């Protein structure tokens, strides 16, 4: 099937799409400054190493505990580990696909250039899918590098470890492309309201994946653990099954030439305009009217329902402050929502400090349910500080990589924000650190907003 594909043409298209996307993401005058580059890369490296160090500490305690297990229990634990990795990475392929298609859309310029190229449709189709797969692989590899050390808990030889690493990558690619095949099959037959149907698919498939991941996966893991299979046999069977799945999916995609149809997606939810609007209301609406905000609310409600279903209502209520703090992620769209208005802030004599102050007030308004809940029950200012830090961090990365300046900006900003949020949760128990981190993030946000004004947005 793949013999009909001209891989030289495919490589050229993928290279063009990557260059076009990265040009929009990195084409910033102050990002070309060596000092700023070093500062940003050093901060990200320190955050990643801190996260990796904490994971290795937990890994060390698990390894010491594994030494105390007898041979039979160790074999059961190893089967559970392999099954868990296969299940989680399968779900990860589906969820990353949904995230990628939601955040990455080819620009009109890219689509025009691709259409006028004298290349066969199959070459363009494969190139577009490879482009999304390469970008999605960045998130996968980040997750994989963090989780990989735990694989050494499974007693295998070096060759089996390498085979297992290859197997996990094949699982991710196979489930990613299988999800793409499902979306392409459904949406290619849709004549109208493609965006609505895709959103329904995202909710249904993403919701089902999360329910399986959080609820039913454990049943499958324990069933597999009871099978009297040697680890090498278990690895071989999994490797063969997902390899065949990958070959079948790729063959079907190339043969049927199924692709996601392009459509113009509405970025914002329509809200009645107000004759008079304060800066605080402007900041709140800039976040609330984005589809990311609506999607986040749906995910939060869904997560609370799943937790209540699994562990009881009391546990679900206790989890509200932690889960609601994820609403701060929606502030990543603030810069893109307001970039046409903010260019007039200097003419309106609105300083950067005033803008940041308004931002903090809008963050408190959106997190008002949690603030009231903390005040009326058991005050926990640590969680309120987390909401502020996550929201300002989202504004920082959203301004650093605004969506209107590149089709990969949303994706890059979201990946960096996830790293930042994970780093914040590492220091949440250190009370003295949160005020310091809040001050640093506030200064960084003020600095990047100031730089944006200097560049004229």
User: Which percent band covers the strand fraction?
Assistant: under 5%
Largest sheet, described in full?
none
Mean pLDDT: 76
Quaternary structure type = single chain
* N-to-C order of helices and strands: HHHHHHHHHHHHHHHHH
Distance between the termini: 47 Å
Number of DSSP E strands: 0
Tell me the structural class: mainly alpha
Low-confidence runs: none
Helix content estimate? over 70%
Shape: globular
The count of helical stretches stands at 17
Query: Radius of gyration from the CA trace?
Result: 24 Å
Structural notes for this entry:
- The protein contains 17 helices and no strands.
- It has helices spanning 7-26, 34-66, 71-103, 108-116, 121-147, 158-187, 194-225, 231-256, 279-288, 291-311, 313-324, 334-342, 352-366, 368-376, 381-400, 409-426, 433-454.
- α3 (71-103) packs antiparallel against α7 (194-225), α9 (279-288) packs across α13 (352-366) and α10 (291-311) packs antiparallel against α11.
- The longest helix has 33 residues, at 34-66.
- The N and C termini lie far apart (47 Å).
């Amino acid at each position: 099937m793949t013999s009909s594909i001209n891989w030289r043409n495919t490589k050229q298209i993928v290279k063009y799409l990557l260059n076009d996307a990265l040009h929009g993401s990195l084409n910033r005058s102050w990002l070309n400054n060596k000092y700023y580059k070093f500062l940003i890369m050093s901060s990200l490296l320190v955050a990643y190493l801190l996260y990796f160090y904490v994971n290795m500490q937990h890994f060390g305690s698990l390894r010491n505990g594994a030494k105390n297990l007898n041979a039979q229990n160790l074999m059961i634990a190893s089967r559970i580990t392999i099954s868990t990795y296969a299940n989680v990475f399968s779900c990860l392929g589906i969820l990353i696909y949904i995230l990628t298609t939601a955040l990455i859309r080819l620009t009109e310029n890219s689509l025009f250039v691709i259409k006028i190229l004298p290349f066969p449709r199959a070459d363009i189709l494969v190139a577009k899918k490879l482009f999304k797969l390469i970008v999605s692989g960045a998130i996968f590899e980040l997750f994989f590098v963090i989780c990989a050390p735990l694989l050494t808990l499974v007693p295998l030889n070096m060759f089996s470890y390498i085979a297992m690493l290859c197997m996990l990558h094949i699982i991710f690619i196979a489930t990613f492309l299988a999800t793409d095949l499902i979306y392409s099959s459904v949406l290619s037959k849709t004549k109208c309201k493609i965006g609505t149907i895709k959103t329904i698919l995202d909710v249904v498939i993403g919701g089902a994946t999360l329910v399986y991941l959080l609820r039913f996966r454990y049943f499958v893991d324990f069933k597999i653990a009871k099978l009297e299979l040697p680890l090498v046999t278990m690895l071989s069977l999994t490797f063969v099954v997902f390899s065949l799945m990958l070959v079948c999916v790729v063959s079907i995609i190339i043969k049927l030439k199924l692709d996601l149809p392009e459509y113009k997606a509405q970025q914002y939810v329509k809200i009645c305009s107000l004759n008079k609007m304060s800066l605080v209301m402007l900041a709140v609406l800039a976040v609330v009217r984005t589809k990311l905000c609506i999607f986040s609310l749906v995910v939060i409600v869904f997560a609370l329902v799943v937790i209540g279903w699994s562990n009881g209502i009391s546990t679900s209520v206790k989890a509200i402050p932690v889960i609601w703090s994820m609403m701060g992620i929606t502030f990543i769209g603030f810069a893109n929502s307001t970039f046409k208005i903010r260019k007039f802030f200097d003419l309106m004599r609105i300083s950067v400090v005033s803008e940041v102050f308004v931002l903090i007030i809008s963050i408190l308004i959106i997190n008002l349910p949690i603030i009231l809940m903390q005040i009326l029950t058991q005050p926990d200012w640590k969680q309120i500080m987390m909401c502020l830090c996550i929201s300002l961090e989202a504004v920082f990365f959203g301004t650093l990589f605004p969506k209107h300046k590149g089709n990969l900006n949303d994706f890059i900003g979201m990946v960096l924000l996830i790293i930042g949020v994970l780093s914040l949760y590492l220091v949440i128990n250190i009370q003295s650190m949160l005020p310091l981190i809040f001050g640093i993030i506030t200064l960084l946000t003020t600095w990047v907003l100031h730089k944006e004004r200097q560049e004229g947005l």
